[in-house]
């Protein structure tokens, strides 16, 4: 559950070793602890207050397999995207990816860059909820699939720049807003 008064965790920036390390699996015993449940609340709060569509634990220097996804139409970064409720997934894994690849803009809370990244248009992801119950997501909306896959990449030390094919699309956010935001590809 998101608590508006929970503290914001510091987001590490590109170059921090946590962003390039493979994250460890969360055990059910660890998941059941009060400290870990508090961490989940803090991570969710950090995602929402930072206007992220998602965040992964390595982005706050915690190499555990945890992601948060939250696509809110009130978010100024993603105002026209289909909503996705605030969701915490522990130990997510991709069960299936579509062969159809879509390239679109991605940004990251851990850097001030945007670039066009190719990703499968849909996917199926399974993991645990914060109670330790298995949850599954059939993500057939491209943006939602993109967010899940982007955050899961973080758990394996993969950064969005590693996936970019068109290197000339790597841009600072301010320059992206001026020159690239409305450009058709």
Strand order of the largest sheet: 1-2-3-6-7
User: Can you identify the CATH class of the domain at 17-97 and 125-158?
Assistant: Alpha Beta
| Stretches with pLDDT under 50, minimum 5 residues | none
Helix/strand/pairing category: alpha+beta
Number of helical regions = 5
Q: Characterize the largest beta sheet: strand count, sense, and whether it forms a barrel.
A: 5 strands, antiparallel
- What is the overall pLDDT average? 94
Cα distance, first to last residue?
Answer: 39 Å
Beta percentage is 25-35%
Principal-axes geometry comes out as globular
CATH level 4 superfamily of the domain at 17-97 and 125-158: Peptide deformylase
In the CATH classification, which architecture of the domain at 17-97 and 125-158 applies? Alpha-Beta Complex
Q: Tell me the series of helices and strands, N- to C-terminal.
A: HHEEEEEEEHHEH
Helix content: 10-25%
Gyration radius, in Å: 16 Å
Number of strands: 8
